[in-house]
Amino acid sequence: MNRTPIEWVKNPDGTQGYTWNPITGCLNGCEYCYARKLANGRLKSRYLANTNISPLQTESPGYYASKLIDSLDPFYPRFWQNRIPDDKFHYFGKLKQVKPRGIFVCDMGELFGDWIPPEWQEQIFRVITLNPWHRFYLLTKQPQNLIKFSPFPPNCWVGVTATNAKMLREALMYLEEIRASVKYVSLEPLLGQIYDPLYFLNALPDFLSVIDWVIIGAQTKPYKPPKIEWVEEIVQACDKAGVKVFLKDNLKPLFRQVVLENTHCLTYPYGELRQEVPK
Q: How far apart are CA 277 and CA 112, in angstroms?
C-alpha cells in the first residue's frame, strides 16, 4: 500500500489517502491510460516477473478484444498474492494501522473486468470486509458487473468512469441498480460535452440524483483539457441535483480566466477549485 497523489482519494479525516494494487493490468484498452504507460515503462520488469496472470479470455470490446493471453505483456492482468494482508491480524499494509485510511483499490488495473477470476475478487472483498474501519474506493469501466457484488460492504465507495455523455448515461443506469454507501462518477478524462441539447439537457439533474459525487478531470500526457463550458454545465447540474463536485488540480489552467472573472460556480469564494467530498 502506498500514499497516493490522486487528490480525491482521501482518508476519512481529510488527509491524503492510499492506493492498493492486488490486481494490476486491464483489457479495456483506453489510449490515454496512465497505468498502461507505467506498466510498459519503469514498472515493466517488475510486472513481467509476476507470472500469476489471468487465465480467462474475454469478449469485451477494446484494445485487447482479439488478443490471446500474453504473459509478455506487462499490462496483462496479474494477481499479487503478497499484497493480500494476513486477515487474522486485522491490519492493512506492512504496519498495523488502527487509524482509518482511504484506500483506492486497483488504480493500476480493472477489478471488475470479465477477465478477472472470481477467486481474485473474493480475496479482495474478504480483506475489505475484515477491515471495516478503512474506506475503500472502487472505480470501474465495467459497470455492468457491479450488480454481482451488490449490496457492497458499508465501507465501499463505488464509482464508474465516464468520458462522454453516452458513458455517463450507462454509468448512472448501472449505479442506480446497486446499493453502496457512496456512489460516484469519475469524468476523467472529460473528452466530450455531457449535455446533449436534444436529450440530456433537462434530464441530467434527475439522472444525477442516483449518485452522491462527481469527479471531473482533464486528460494528461498529452494534456487535453475539456472546454470550460462543459465543466460549467456539469457543475450546475450537480448543484441542482445536490451532488458534491470534485474538480481535479489538472483543471487549474482552465480556470485562471474564470477566477479573474469572479465566476464562483466552479470555485470556492477564495478562488480555489471546488473539491468537495461526501461526508
A: 24
